[in-house]
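Lab notes, practical 5.
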Amino acid sequence: MNFHDILFQVDEGIGRLTLNNPDRLNALSWGSWAEIEQAIAIAEADDACKVVVITGAGRGFCAGTNLVAQGNESEWPDRPFKGREKMMRSRYLATAQIYHCRKPTIAAVNGACVGAGFSLAMACDIRIASEAARFSAIFVKRAIVADTGCTWFLPRLVGLENALKMMYTGRIVPADEALSMGLVSEVVAAEELIPRASALASEIARGPSVAIELMKRLTQDGLTRGLDEQVQMEEYLQQITRDSEDAVEGRNSFLEKREPVFRGR
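Output from the prediction step:
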């Protein structure tokens, strides 16, 4: 599929999604969001894609919503939904689609990451930041309520007080502070960002993808479950992995004292 505002390709198990409007710091139109939705749908449907890395072209990750170039709705790309779902599904749910993606997701944040772009990064499972990365829930500066899931993601990542402080002020949070508050898991030099994100993605891609996808689902669902129910769900889903080819390979490699070779089956 040809895209206008993003680049997307799958290579050696890694789906690489690059926001590609560097002249506007990769600000997103509704058409851009539609392309992101399409790319995530493609990644989910492709068993060869084990993990998705999202980054931005140029010196920014994403400057949020493009306020000047939305265009006409008739010109926007198709979304990966049909019928009534397409008619009724909010476009603001694109971040929810990323969050619920079966495949692990990594945001490689290379620069400014604000507004809806901030929500996009938070929707990913893991965030690695360049030393040049800057984060802001900038919505208050436009006198609007935070959107695209920011009020849901942010307190879960940094706690209620830090989240409200960021949303009340819209202040810019540098990479080192983002690391200290748990907003990102790593900060690396700018030139090391993509190699580090790629190395982590490759490590995940070599893993047993069925088990990894189920662990993602279990962990997310566990945020709203009680302990007893969660343990029982772990037991239930573990039966699926025990019958997989990868589980056989895991046992054999252990007995044979070698590294396992998983195939996602």
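Observations recorded by the TA: The first strand starts at residue 6 and ends at 11. The domain at 6-205 is CATH 3.90.226.10 (2-enoyl-CoA Hydratase; Chain A, domain 1).
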